[in-house]
Amino acid sequence: MPDLNILSHSGVNLVAKKYLSNEGKKLMLFLNYMVVYSNCFQVYMLGLLENLYKHTGFTDNPNDPQLTVYKRINILNWACSLGYDDCVRNSVLQFQNWRSSPDPDQNNP
After folding, report:
1. pLDDT, tens digit, for every residue of 21-51?
2. What is the mean pLDDT of residues 93-100?
3. How far apart are CA 35 and CA 31, in angstroms?
4. Are 54 and 87 in contact (CB under 8 A)?
5. Are the CB atoms for 72 and 57 separated by under 8 Å?
6. How far apart are CA 74 and CA 68, in angstroms?
7. Greater confidence, 35 or 17?
8. DSSP state of 35
């Protein structure tokens, strides 16, 4: 690596461009790899989450222990992020119900 103290501003830009172009190739290979395996990851994770989701449920119960509430938050976050149909459907429905209520700001879930 050249001594950056002796390079002009344009020289620094040249070094940065060369470095980023080499790293860009590695980044593209990595992104291609992730696209191929992201579907496998999604299927794998949804397989792990499905029983947890069914057991924990989507809807809060006021009598749930605090640990169950935290577990539900994490499971719903993962399940909806990974596109689990029931989670996404329930989330959209809950949002639509909230938006169509007469005073949504008063009735926050």
Report:
1. 666 667 667 766 666 667 788 888 899 999 9
2. 90
3. 6
4. no
5. yes
6. 10
7. 35
8. H
Report the distance separating Cα 50 and Cα 46, nearest Å.
Answer: 6
pTM, whole model, 2 decimals?
0.62
- Which helix (H) or strand (E) segment holds residue 42: the answer is helix 9-56
Alpha carbon separation from 61 to 45, 54, 55, 65 (Å, rounded): 26, 15, 13, 9
Q: How far apart are CA 75 and CA 15, in angstroms?
A: 45
Euclidean distance between the first and final Cα of the chain, in Å? Answer: 57
- Measured CA to CA, the distance from residue 55 to residue 107 in angstroms comes to 27
Contact 12, 4 (CB under 8 A): yes
